[in-house]
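Protocol step 4 of 5: obtain the predicted structure for the target chain.
Materials: sequence only (see below). No template structures provided, no constraints applied. The aim of this step is simply to have a reference model before the mutagenesis design in step 5. Sequence pasted as it appears in the construct record:
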Amino acid sequence: MMHDSLKQLRLVPLREQPALLETAVVWFSSKWGIPAAAYRESMTACLAGGVIPQWYMLLDEQDAIVGGAGVIENDFHDRPDLAPNLCAVFVEPAWRCRGCAGWLLNAIRADMASRGVHTLYLVTDHTAFYERYGWRFLTVVNGDDGSPTRLYTAYTP
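Step 4 output (structure tokens):
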């Protein structure tokens, strides 16, 4: 059941609202500390068409981004065979514990399935969060910096 506060939010794929490009670039960069240029490059590729990459935002009634995530080929790990990767999942603290992350994760899986992608992967240090939403631990991978991190997988509906 959807939390009542979620009814005021909209899930928007960037490809459907390209005018959000710069707003999304700044928002994701501010949340993850990755240079805006890297997000701009990926999001511009999303807008050019194709299946991967994809970017998604949860917008409130004022069209402010309150959550988001992307799907990219590889999220900085040493297993390029485990692709594509869900990345940059973030929900603003004021919107946490209301079901936003679950809605975002499930909607992205459904959208990717409609685009012919039936398995997604993600890297995370979380040990119990993603399991709630149908993800399962698959293996440990090494990040670009050589540090081990957990890799999860989920099938799209």
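Step 4 remarks: Residues 4-155 form a domain with the Aminopeptidase fold (CATH 3.40.630.30). The chain has three helices and seven strands.
Proceed to step 5.
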